[in-house]
Every structure is written in C-alpha cells, then in structure tokens.
C-alpha cells in the first residue's frame, strides 16, 4: 500500500491526520489489555508482598524459637552447675566440720 502512495500525498496536513487516526485506533484496541495488565501487575505485587511478609515472619519466629531453646539450655546447665557446686560445698563443709569436731 505504501508503494502506491506517492510522496506527494504525505503533505504536512494529511500526515498528522493519518497519525492521529492510527494512534486513536491503537489506543482503542489495546486500552483494555493495558488495564488488565495493570490489574495483573497489582495482584502479582500483592501476592509477592504477602509471601515475603509470611516468610519473614516465619524466619523471625524460627530465630526466636532457636534463641529461646539456646537460653533454656544455658539455664539448665547453670542450674546443674549450681546444684553440683552447692552439693560439693555442702559435702566439703560436712567433711570439714566432721574433722573439726573430732
């Protein structure tokens, strides 16, 4: 079709009209697609944000749980050490008092 149109038909007055008509047809044709694409992009962003938030919360919960377990283990060891130290101190004192009284 372009070969049939001579160079003289692309005057400054007719070319903008053709361009405006083409642009208007293009917008009408793809306006629905653009709106749907925008909706899909928003939904995808919300899904990614929700997933990242869930993963972050799960990770924070896991870290808190591991720290709590670590603290509980340390407390148990401290209790064991204190009990052993206390028992040893009591038994040594009994031995000392036993020697002193005899």
| Oligomeric state, counting identical vs distinct chains | single chain
Averaged pLDDT, please? 77
Strand content: under 5%
The number of helical runs is: 1
Q: What is the chain-wise order of helices and strands?
A: H
User: Runs with pLDDT <50, length 5+?
Assistant: 1-8
- Shape, please? rod-shaped
Query: How would you sum up the major sheet?
Result: none
Class from helix and strand fractions: mainly alpha
Q: Give the N-terminus to C-terminus distance in angstroms.
A: 127 Å
Q: Can you walk me through this structure?
A:
This protein has 102 residues and is mainly α. It is built from one helix and no strands. The chain is rod-shaped.
Topology, pairings included?
Layout: H1 14-101
Summarize the structure in short.
The protein is an all-alpha fold.
Descriptive key words:
1 helix; 86% helix; 102 residues; disordered N terminus; 0% strand; mainly alpha
